[in-house]
Amino acid sequence: MNTKAIVKRLEAFTSCDVADALLKLKVPHGGFLAGLTMWSPQRQEGPTRIVGPAYTVKYVRKNYENEPKPAGHYIDSVPSGSVVFISAPPRMINACYGGLMSNRAKYLGAVGTVIDGRLRDLQEHRDLHYPVFARDVGTTAPQEVARVSEVNAPVRLNSEEQDAVINPGDILIGDINGVVCLPQGLAEKALDLMQSQVDADVKVAADINKGRTAAEAMKEHRANVKQP
Description:
The protein contains six helices and ten strands.
């Protein structure tokens, strides 16, 4: 199955659905990327959902002279349908993504941006109705302290809670629940598990709302959930 077909099928599921499937496939934390939440077009509100292959951008501290220096600006090479994933240096106060970047990303057909760091120009992203997920907001551009070193290379999540790597082409799913990284090589296996677990939970909820206990409903309906 090609990436476009995988993304189309994933659009029917939430980030929690994807995480449930990845737990069954023994992916740590169900692929959840801790600390990244929705800031635009609303702050942790609404039905916004993004699904697409990761286009990764790695920032490093400006004085890291031995790191690569890509030619051109990363934002001009964003593939249509992708999710831009920006990796900032750990503990950087400056923002590493602003409104002009969302203008260009939206024009090129990106479906959203995830920032492992701070964003700025929040109202501008919201006025564009462009989805942005990040750790926090800020006011100051990155130029004085950081620069881009790599584009479309593996990046590691800035987290003391988990060890997670986002590879170019991994599928990123973001919604009000958070952001999940679905490894490209597991996408079809995960999709194969999702529908049966969602169907089971719908039946469990219906039974609970009729007065049945959760234990009874889960025992009956989850017994038929597809396993890897």
